[in-house]
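Appendix C: a fully annotated inverse folding record. The material below is reproduced so that readers can follow the format used throughout the book. The structure is listed first as tokens, followed by the designed sequence.
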């Protein structure tokens, strides 16, 4: 069975409309999201446009502050601080990746924990690790929502996450652990990736390598979540060899139309929740 991320994200977004409207009425203003876009990376520009459009669709106010690729560290930090202090915004995010000369950690540290709707801050990641309430990074949160919406129980299951980035792999592993799965995290130095993956009841691929996960790496009946986004011959593909793996998986996400739409939906949800918490 294919997990339809687009449909599930649509349900989340529909539910957010009423919630954002009710909250807006109480606040006397719309729930607001500020996005900082630095440089002219075309993919980043597309992602930001999609986020703006999604905000508008569910009734959130959003604003993009675009800074030139050669902006200084100080100017970039000041721009983020100004937005962080602006009461119109419940959430602030900086679109990544940043131009190479900028110190990402220092720029992101200007976003206060309560407005960190991307969930990338040390405080949010630390709280997640401790199993405390926090703002969870959008992509791994989206994966958890997909699993829940598809009726996948995690307690006692063996989950294997391939990829250990701070934005996907690590928070994904912590969420699965917090949901009582037994979790293995694999990365580029893992020996015997195939054997590790074969043990997975739930396999999450978050690598960025087309068709890294082949059918011989997947246990019959496993749930397979493909986070990867790769462009091959002008087409978007994931990290999973979808045609062959879908023959073995009990549930699988497609690319596109799987995890991707959930990421944006979770950003909207995180922003609405940030506004609710602040109130
Ligand atoms: P990173 O490049 O930051 O991390 C990739 C991870 O994969 C690293 O931990 C790396 O290991 C590991 N890796 C690389 N090669 C191998 C290999 N051959 N075998 C096992 N592990 C390997 O990527 P992100 O985490 O940011 O993103 C992962 C993918 O997810 C990308 O395709 C990205 O485009 C996509 N993505 C999709 C989103 C969505 O909304 N659907 C949102 C965010 C990302 P090591 O740490 O050792 O280098």
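Designed amino acids, in order:
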């Amino acid at each position: 069975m294919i997990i339809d991320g687009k449909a599930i994200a649509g349900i989340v977004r529909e539910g957010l409309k009423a919630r954002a409207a009710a909250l807006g009425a109480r606040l006397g203003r719309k729930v607001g999201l500020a996005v900082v876009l630095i440089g002219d990376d075309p993919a980043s520009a597309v992602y930001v446009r999609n986020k703006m459009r999604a905000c508008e669709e569910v009734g959130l106010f959003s604003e993009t502050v675009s800074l030139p690729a050669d902006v200084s560290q100080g100017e970039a930090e000041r721009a983020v601080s100004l937005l962080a202090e602006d009461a119109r915004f419940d959430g602030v995010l900086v679109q990544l990746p940043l131009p190479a000369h900028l110190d990402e950690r220092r720029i992101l540290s200007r976003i206060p924990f309560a407005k960190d709707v991307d969930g990338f801050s040390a405080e949010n990641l630390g709280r997640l690790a401790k199993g405390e309430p926090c703002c969870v990074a959008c992509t791994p949160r989206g994966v958890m929502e997909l699993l829940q919406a598809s009726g996948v129980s995690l307690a006692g299951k063996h989950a294997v996450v391939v990829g250990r980035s701070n934005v996907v792999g690590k928070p994904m592993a912590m969420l699965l652990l917090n949901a009582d799965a037994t979790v293995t995290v694999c990365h580029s130095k893992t020996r015997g990736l195939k054997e590790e993956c074969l043990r997975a009841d739930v396999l999450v691929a978050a690598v960025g390598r087309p068709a890294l996960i082949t059918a011989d790496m997947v246990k019959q009946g496993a749930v397979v979540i493909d986070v990867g986004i790769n462009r091959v011959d002008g087409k978007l593909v994931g990290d999973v060899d979808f045609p062959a793996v879908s023959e073995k998986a009990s549930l699988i996400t497609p690319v596109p139309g799987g995890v991707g739409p959930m990421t944006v939906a979770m950003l909207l949800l995180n922003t609405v929740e940030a506004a609710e918490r602040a109130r």
